[in-house]
Amino acid sequence: MECGREFRMLSGRHLASHGLDSKTYRKKYGFPARQPLCAKALSEERSAGAKERGLPENLRKAIDARAKKKVVVDGEKKGDVKNLVMQAIAETLRGGR
């Protein structure tokens, strides 16, 4: 690191204090572009904590709830997103569009 300190994660704010961003830091020190600037142990700790709190299940529920929201087109209720997508696919397969 530029300042000689050790970190478990390099934040954008800390890199900015040294006049860098994540892209230039990776290039300067030879890290691949897809290499996270976070220690693997920290990433695993966060993942385990999220799973303990039920995050994957809650996220799935939120996505399903969002898909069920009613869609309004030109001031007229058209149904939920999932049904509209299925209708559009069916109509496309029939050659309607």
Keywords:
97 residues; mainly alpha; 2 strands; 9% strand
Characterization of this structure:
The chain has 97 residues and is mainly alpha-helical. The protein folds into 2 domains: 1-53, no CATH class; 60-94, no CATH class. Helix content is 57%, strand content 9%. The chain contains 5 helices and 2 strands; from the N terminus they run H-H-H-H-E-E-H. It has a two-stranded antiparallel ribbon with strand order 1-2. It is elongated. It starts with 11 loop residues before the first helix and ends with a helix. The model has no long low-confidence stretch (mean pLDDT 84).
Helix segment count?
5
SS content category: mainly alpha
Query: Helicity level, as a percent range?
Result: 55-70%
Compute the CA-based radius of gyration.
23 Å
> What best-fitting shape do the alpha-carbon axes yield?
elongated
Number of domains: 2
The low-confidence runs, each spanning 5 or more residues with pLDDT under 50, are: none
Biggest sheet record: 2 strands, antiparallel
Determine the mean pLDDT. 84
- Compressed to H and E, one letter per element, the order equals HHHHEEH
Compute the number of strand runs. 2
Residues in β-strands, percent: 5-15%
N-to-C terminal Cα separation, in Å?
57 Å
In the sheet with the most strands, the strands line up as 1-2
